[in-house]
Amino acid sequence: NLIHQRSPRADKPFLEVNCASLPETLLESELFGHEKGAFTDASGRKRGLLELANGGTLFLDEVGEMALPIQVKLLRVLERMSFRRVGGTEDIEVSVRIISATNRDLNQAVRDGSMREDLFFRLKVVPIHLPPLRQRPEDLPVLVEHFLHEFSRNFGREFHAVTDRALAAMNTYRWPGNIRELRNCMERAVLLNDGPELTKEMLQIPGADGGDEGEESLRFLRQLREIGDRGIPEDGVDFEAMVGSMERFLIGRAAEKAGWNQSLAARFLHLNRDKLRTRMKNYDLGKPPTG
């Protein structure tokens, strides 16, 4: 939506459809529209999303799930910017920007024949690879704040902040469902609770109780900032605990980013593989079970 809003088409329609949520015949009708009598239930003419989005943007979510016959028709739209409604004989010309998204490997889909190669390259004009949420923890606080304000407004709640413990728990969770899962988690937490602060206990996410490691690292980071500003406190610092906590946290994050490939994780941390392997063993760090 942001691409549309920041473009010259911003004053025109922005429409979207999830290609995985509709069967082939319904998706065809949804995209291209149909004429009266085109099929049994076609009691009147229907304009499709391509026609309704004329001048604007159409977002095709999960485009990798689109059936091959519809891919052929979509390719024609991209090449000629024209199409016919289902059951129609008249060419309809449009000017519409197509944005598509998928969580599938479309290169593999082309190889196994479920994705047309010509359509793949027509869609892949300006590809944007978005890594999974667990690989970009710097985005998490911004997204959490956005959803917190959105759902507080929608549900009439008075949430104004997220506790450090809650943020630490979310930082240590892997988010297999990515932003959709985060959004659902925030929506549930705001709907079922009252503010002003969102706490760890409100999240109800698997492994939320395992946020102590991230929480401890955040606490030590704050302590480091205070030491930089004010110097070593009179009661001193727990050097071993602080260094150990940060080391375990960094190794875990690097291993996660590397998909638990130790050689790659070692390169991220500028360590040799043997040293990394020893540290992972000392901290009992290993790839979490899937499923």
What features would you describe in this structure?
The chain is mainly α and 291 residues long. Among the domains are: 2-123, Rossmann fold, CATH 3.40.50.300; 133-210, Helicase, Ruva Protein, domain 3 (Orthogonal Bundle), CATH 1.10.8. It is 47% helix and 8% strand. It is built from 13 helices and 7 strands. It has helices spanning 2-5, 24-32, 49-52, 68-80, 106-111, 117-123, 140-155, 164-172, 178-192, 212-230, 239-257, 262-268, 273-282; strands at residues 14-18, 57-61, 82-83, 92-93, 97-101, 161-162, 197-198. Strands 1-2-5 form a 3-stranded parallel beta sheet. A two-stranded antiparallel ribbon has the order 3-4. A hairpin with an 8-residue loop joins strand 3 and strand 4. Helix 7 crosses helix 9 and helix 10 (212-230) crosses helix 11. It is elongated, with a radius of gyration of 25 Å. 21% of the residues are buried. The mean pLDDT is 87.
**Total number of strands:** 7
Q: Name the helix and strand elements from N-terminus to C-terminus, one letter apiece.
A: HEHHEHEEEHHHEHHEHHHH
Side by side, the strands of the main sheet go 1-2-5
The CATH homologous superfamily of the domain at 2-123: P-loop containing nucleotide triphosphate hydrolases
Task: Assign the structural class, choosing from mainly alpha, mainly beta, alpha/beta, alpha+beta, or little secondary structure.
Answer: mainly alpha
Q: What spatial form do the alpha-carbon principal axes imply?
A: elongated
Low-confidence stretches: none
For the biggest sheet, the summary is: 3 strands, parallel
CATH topology of the domain at 2-123: Rossmann fold
